[in-house]
Structures are given as C-alpha cells and as structure tokens.
Amino acid sequence: ANSPDEKALVDAASKLGISLKSVTPDPHYESARRLAFQINWGQSHTDVTTQEFIVDATLEFDHTRRRMTVMVRHPDGTFHIHSKGAESSMLEPNLCSRTSSEIRTKALERVNEIALAGLRTLVFATKQLSQDEYQQLLDERRMALSRFGEARREALRASTERIESGLELLAVTGIEDKLQIGVKECLENLRAAGIQVWVLTGDKEETAITVSQSAGHFPESMTIVRITGCTDFTSVAELVFKHLQGLDARYEQARLNQCRPRSKPEVSAGTRCLSPTLDEIDEVVCAAAQLAVAPDPEKNKKKTKSELVNVRRKIKKFREKISQYGSETNMPYRVPGRRGRAKPGASEESVGLVIDGASLVHALHPSLRAAFLDLCMNVTTVLCCRMSPMQKASMVELVHMGFGEMQRPVTAAIGDGGNDVSMILQANVGIGIYGKEGKEAARAADYVLPQFRFLQNLLLVHGHWAYHRISHTMLLFYFKCVAFVTTSILLAFYSGFSANAWYSSVVFGLYNLTLTSLVYMLFGMFERHLTYDQLLENPKLYRTISRNANLHFRRIILFVLDGVWHGSVIFFSVYFFLAGGGYFGNAVFIDNKGAHGNHFDFTLCGGAAMVYVVVCVNLRVLLQSRDHNLPMFIGFLITLVPNVAFFMAIQFKVSPSSSDYLTYLKLTLSPAFWLSFPVILITASLPVLIWRIKSDSWWQSHMSAGKKRKKHARTSILSTVLNDPPKSDSDPPNHINKEANRAGQNEHPSFQLVRLSSTNAT
C-alpha cells in the first residue's frame, strides 16, 4: 500500500475474505499489472477461489483532481473503470452522471456524518465499458503518454476527462486515523512554551475539526470562527473584515470588564484597533472590481450593458457591506505582540480560525493577505483544511514573509507524507515524521522523528540546549576577545602611544587558537544549564530563549562590559602590583638561587598579563557553566599542560640577549606574581559571581512556579473527579462486518458504508 488509507482498505478486504496474493507485470504491456486475489466467501476451504485482475492503466492522485483512477479487466471478461477520491471531486454531477441527485445527496449526508465522527472519508465510483470503448480510451491514454511538452499535458488532461466521466457512485468509506500516543500532551506543552501551533491538512472540514478537538488543538472552551465555503473574493473579504471587527469588539469588551484604559496605537502596537481602515477597504474594493471585470478589454466589449451595470451594482453593494466593518482611524496594520500571553490574540481569549482551501485562494490575494495575516495572528490558533501542497507552502510563506525583517518569526513545518514536502522546504526548519506514508517528508526534512510526540523533546529540550550553547558561546567569545584587547588599549595610554606591545607575536597567534578555544568549544558542545527532566516538566522555560533573547543587544553589551572589566582589572593590577605604577619600585624576582632580586621589566609585565588573561577567561567559562562535566575537565587539562610546556620550552630557544629569554621562569620566582593571582581572580570574577547567584535564584523561581501550577492543576482535576465521577465509556466502534451488514440493508444497494481502522500520525 502507498498510504495508510490504502493499507486500511486492503486489510478490510482481507477480513471480508478477499486477500491480495501477488502483483506481477503483464507480459504484453510494460505498464500493465496482474493482481491475483484469493477469495473465500464461505467457511470451508473448498469455497476458496483465485481470480486475476489486470490493471491496464493507473491515473495517479493529484491535488487538482483529488482522485485516483484505474482501468481494470475483470476475470469474467468485463472492462471497468474504478475511481476513488474526496467527496468534493467525486460527487460532481458531471463525474457521477449515472447516479441520481437523490443518491448523491444521501452520499454527501453520509460523508458529513462520517467526517463528524472524526473519520477520513473516501468516495468510490465505477463504470463498466464495452471492449471497444475500453480499448479506445486505453489507446488514447497510451498515445498521450508518448507525447512531450505542452502537447503531452493537454493530451493527458483530455484523456483523463474522458476516462473520469459518466461514473456511477459505488460506496463511501470512513477510515479511522488514530492519534499517536502523546500527541495531546505534546501540543499542550508546545502551547505552554509559547509556540503557536497551526494545523494544515487536506482532510474535510468536519474531520479536521473533530480530530483537532480530540488532539487538544481546539479545546472545548474555544470559540471557532470560520471562513469556509466561499466561492468568490468578495465573500472572503467580507468574512475577514467581519472577524477582525469581532475580535476588536471582544478586546474592547475585555478591556471594559477589567476596567483598564486602552493604550494608544502610537504608543503600543499590541493593542491597536483591528477593524480595517479606509485605505484597506478601498484597496479590497478595487481588487474585487478588477476580478469581476475580465482583464482582456476585448472580452469586456462583448459584455452587454446590463451585465456591466450588474457588475457595478455588485461592487457598490460590496463596498457598502464591508464599510460597516471599517474603523474611523486610518492607521496602518500592525500585528500585536503575542509573547508571554496565556491566551494570545487581540481579544485575549481562546479563539480558533478555520479556513478551507477554496477560501484560502482568495484570502491570499495581494490586496487581502495583510488583513488575513492580521486575523490569523490575532486568534489563538488556525486550522486550514482541504489544503493542497502548494497552499500549505503558501501559508508558511505568508507567516514568514508577512512581517518586517526584524520581526519575522521562525517557522517550523512538521509533516509525514509526500504532500507535506513543499511545506517542509518552505519553512525555516523542516521536520519529517518517518511513518507509514512514505519517506518523502523524511528525505526533505532537516530533522526526522519516529513519532510526533518526540517533537517536544526536539524543541523544548534539544532546541533549548542548542540555542543556549551557541548563543552563550558567541557571548563568551566576545568577552574573551574584548578582555584581551582591553589590556593593549590601556597600555597605549600609559606608554605614550608608542605602539609597543606587551605580548609577543606568538601570544597573538595562539590566544584564540590554543590558549582559550578548546574550553569554549567544549562548552558549546556539552553544556546543559538545565536537566532533561527540568525542561520537559517546565515547558514555559522555552519562553526565556524565544525571540533570540540571549543575543539581545543588552546581553551583548553586558558581556562586552564584562570583558572590559576583566581587562581593566588585569592591566591595573599588573601596573601597580608588578610595575609600581610610577609611585613604588618595581616588583622583584629572586635570581641566582636567592642571591639578589632583579626588578620587573616591560617584557615580564607583559608575560604576567598574558598569564592572568588566559587564566581569567578560562575560569569565566567555569563560572558560566552549570554542568561541570568530564569533557570540560579534560579540555582544561589539554589547554593547560601543552601550552605551559610550549611556553616554558620556547623561552630557552631564543637568544640570551632577547627580552623573552627565561621570561616565564623568572615569573615563577617572583612572590609578587603569585600573590597577585588570587587578588586578580577574585576581583575580576566578583561581578560574575554575583550574577551567577542571582541567575540560579531566577531559574529556581521559574521552575518552582511551574511545579506549583502543575500541583494546582492536579488538585483541580482530582476535586472535579471526586465531585463528578466520569461516566462510563461509550460502546466501542462497530466492527467492520457489522458496518458492512448495516450498509447492505440500505435502500440503495450501490451505496455502502465501510468503517475501517488504521494507525497514523495526525
């Protein structure tokens, strides 16, 4: 089977006694296949027969036709065409012309019943042809496949229309698409983390809403607004503006209930009037007029005067209708801020938007897309149903490109089938679920998950860790470079800007290569400031890193100032403690086995400053890290031992007349050098120590608040259960044979309902 739906159909047929045994290529035609079925209508083995069907042509499913068709030769010598697809395409009068309108109406009613039960619907139709008709259609199909370019497309379209016409309605099926384990909990955690979850699906509207409610995407208390069943631009525009005005009225009512003043739009972009402005209404009316009139002037000339008058009358009526939703102000559209709100959206209550694919075509019109995006961003969540793959990608593009450069959100698309590939490729992050609908989504994605519930692990845990590591590694790199440069800048002020350098060229070359890089790199690879369980139990902690919080301008300035502080402490400590600062004598080191002491010179001060800088910036990583793991310890050893050995060895390789000769050996013989060490380390690290204490307290308070909320929720649920015990579960779904028997008793024998079951990710 190519999909879970087809697998469910095959399993159902097997339970009814029809089992697929083999599929072999036809020896006469390469594109044909022979399907052998074992049929058992009775209870004994003698009732088992084997029949062979020949599939001569397959018209694969596409999102324009929304159906799949096969041309089949039956074992009894008859020739048939079988088709299955969505009810929106299969119940068209020109397609099922052999079926009466009464049966089509009953079929549509049954489809709606099945969809309301949360099942995925399929409609089947068939027709029987004579051998000549069948062969003629088959030859046309093969001839069309042999062509190229535009001629091939036109020939295939014409051939498909002829094959898929004059069908007779056969059956309606409902396939149960079970949710995977943990989907509801995963969605709840994602919402708690401040991640806006939208559902884009190709299912029928009723099915999509029912599944969304069962998955917790649409809570019972949520108000649902719809833009569905629209066939033209004007009706979609009217609903968009109507819902915007409704959200504005909801917000105003909430403001009055809470007795708070409304912020001015010029001051706060998050509480502006949502109703459309006069300019926006004019733009939409002009677009409606352009769509109502043919773009070709020659075609407009062919229209009668009465037709043009009707167009003008409709446009005038449309303007009057949508003007009632307009606002008195004429300010530009601004999307409200949503961060940190328990109930996002302008109305500050739970509101869900449902839109179908037919309406979305008009909602994405250039004149209306800004208002539609504003509506989407002012509700709690969005459900798009009956979507084609390109429409899914268009929705992702709308959200990603509809904002300014600095306000664009990061979009992630999650899918498990081939129809999700375009959406996955359009998003910033593509996530594929390796499941029963093939590997196309997994191959196109950046990340692959075995089940949907692991999405919370990917985002809330590994995403949190990855962002924290990368962002703080960048900040620490800024810090260590600023600390190193600060000592050189301050030296220029105290050396008459003579361009003399404290550090040798070797130090400049190795500072970012071996002296400080390894520890910082290991921090960026293995740091875990919070444990796995803490992040999963407190999904709201994800909000602390949203909107690139760690790389905010203020955070960067703080780390730069920290680097300036470290560099200043090191420079002035060396200047006063070792060089005397112009007020005291230079520090001394004991030479010739304690015979006498020699004074520090310029080179010795530079060597001491280099040692202090390297030790301080590496110690800064220890103070930043909350996970002192084994790789970090090994990194410190690898940084310390080879570098100490290298610099102790290189001082013996230079000429005795060089100022670098025995520099570090002399430093080890100086009491002032060693006594300055703890003073410099403590003084330079004091602001970081204070920050670390406050930071630990802040993280602990956030986790404690999350635990209190969870405890309160469990207490509320327990009290509800004790006061109102749950009712017994309803009867389980009928088995397939029972459903088939009930369908067989229908007054129309050609109309059947079969309820199947398959497990798949929603």
What does this entry look like structurally?
The chain is an alpha/beta fold and 762 residues long. The protein has three domains: 4-177, Calcium-transporting ATPase, cytoplasmic domain N (3-Layer(aba) Sandwich); 179-387, no CATH class; 462-685, no CATH class. Helices cover 52% and strands 14% of the residues. It contains 26 helices and 17 strands. It has an eight-stranded mixed sheet, with helices on both faces. The protein has a four-stranded parallel sheet with strand order 8-11-10-9, sandwiched between helices. Strands 12-13-14 form a three-stranded parallel sheet. A hairpin with a 5-residue loop joins strand 4 and strand 5 (79-85). Mean pLDDT is 80; it is low at 262-272, 329-342 and 713-762.
Unreliable stretches (pLDDT < 50, length at least 5) are 262-272, 329-342, 713-762
Q: Which structural class do you get from the secondary structure elements? A: alpha/beta
- Radius of gyration computed on alpha carbons: 36 Å
Shape: elongated
- Percentage of residues in strands: 5-15%
The spatial strand order of the largest sheet comes to: 1-2-3-4-5-6-7-17
Ends apart, CA distance between termini: 19 Å
Number of E-state strands: 17
Average the pLDDT over all residues and give the rounded result. 80
Q: How much helix, percentage-wise, in residues?
A: 40-55%
Number of domains: 3
Count of DSSP H/I helices: 26
Biggest beta sheet summary: 8 strands, mixed
